[in-house]
């Protein structure tokens, strides 16, 4: 979907940095149910917007505007997608030009008469959900409008409902006891934790990371020394950052586990290449 991208008043350095963050965000996400897409700003449409493309529909569904800058738009899109596992893509605004003139999503009745579904969903999502699930007109003229409302209802479920299980492409890597070499992993999350086997505050970093295939790994980066507080690293500890790419020279597979439908490989004896 990304294809050739034309960035409006945006340096290639900033654009590439944001695209790398989006690529890292997509580790472990799937295109089986389509994609969410950020449309790029142009001179005539100076904002970035979020769309939903379904595999069984030819017309993208406009969800909302995001921001007037690419970095803020990407951050907002990734925050919106935190509860679903659908891939986030980026596309040139030309892909969506044919959609701007359509009027089949305009409500022709009621208190929101004349407004578009996307606008109503942003202001009052419960009304769109009512259209999708409970509106029963005595004519078929509203069938397409109801179908669009059902697409918004599906989006609402993906974006807002906390799910007990999220499908993932992650697979177990290796067998327990195997030694892995030359792993390139992107850090997804870091959690500080105190080593309870030591009497003082030795603050480790519990890392969640993914490889290019979306396989997820967890491991500890041990503290370099004692901290004064359980909420801070030792001054000589290497601070790991989200979206940072770590090159593991070697690691041992300590085990596997599954949580909420996502498979994880737990590593130990991790040797990280020095910066």
3D architecture notes:
The protein has 275 residues and is an alpha+beta fold. The protein has 2 domains: 12-160, no CATH class; 179-272, OB fold (Dihydrolipoamide Acetyltransferase, E2P). Helix content is 21%, strand content 28%. The protein contains 5 helices and 9 strands. It has helices at residues 12-25, 70-80, 117-123, 125-133, 143-160; strands at residues 35-39, 48-53, 61-67, 88-91, 179-194, 203-210, 216-221, 245-259, 262-272. It has a 5-stranded mixed barrel. It has a 4-stranded mixed sheet with strand order 3-2-1-4. Strand 1 and strand 2 form a beta hairpin. Helix 1 (12-25) runs parallel beside helix 2 and helix 3 (117-123) crosses helix 4 (125-133). The protein is elongated. The chain starts with 11 loop residues before the first helix and ends with a strand. The model has no long low-confidence stretch (mean pLDDT 89).
The overall strand count is 9
Share of helix, binned: 10-25%
Biggest beta-sheet profile: 5 strands, mixed, barrel
Return the string of H and E elements: HEEEHEHHHEEEEE
A few lines on this structure:
The protein has 5 helices and 9 strands, in the order H-E-E-E-H-E-H-H-H-E-E-E-E-E. The chain has 275 residues and is α+β, with helices and mostly antiparallel strands.
């Amino acid at each position: 979907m990304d294809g050739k991208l034309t960035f409006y008043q945006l340096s290639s350095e900033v654009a590439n940095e944001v695209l790398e963050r989006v690529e890292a965000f997509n580790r472990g996400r799937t295109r089986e149910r389509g994609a969410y897409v950020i449309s790029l700003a142009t001179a005539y449409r100076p904002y970035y917007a979020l769309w939903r493309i379904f595999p069984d529909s030819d017309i993208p569904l406009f969800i909302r505007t995001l921001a007037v800058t690419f970095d803020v738009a990407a951050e907002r899109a990734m925050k919106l997608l935190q509860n679903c596992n659908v891939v986030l893509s980026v596309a040139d605004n030309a892909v969506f030009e044919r959609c701007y003139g359509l009027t089949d999503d305009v409500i022709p009745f009621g208190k929101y008469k004349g407004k578009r579904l996307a606008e109503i969903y942003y202001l009052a999502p419960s009304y769109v959900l009512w259209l999708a699930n409970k509106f029963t007109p005595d004519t078929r003229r509203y069938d397409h409008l109801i179908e669009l409302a059902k697409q918004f209802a599906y989006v609402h479920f993906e974006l807002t409902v906390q799910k007990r299980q999220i499908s993932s492409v992650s697979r177990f890597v290796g067998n327990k006891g195997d030694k892995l070499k030359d792993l390139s992993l992107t850090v997804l999350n870091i959690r500080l934790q105190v080593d309870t086997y030591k009497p003082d505050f030795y603050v480790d970093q519990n890392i969640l990371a993914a490889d290019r295939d979306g396989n997820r790994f967890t491991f500890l980066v041990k503290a370099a020394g004692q901290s004064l507080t359980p909420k801070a690293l030792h001054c000589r500890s290497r601070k790991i950052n989200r979206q940072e790419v770590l090159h593991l020279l070697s690691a041992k597979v300590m085990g596997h586990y599954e949580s909420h439908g996502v498979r994880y490989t737990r590593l130990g004896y991790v040797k990280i290449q020095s910066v």
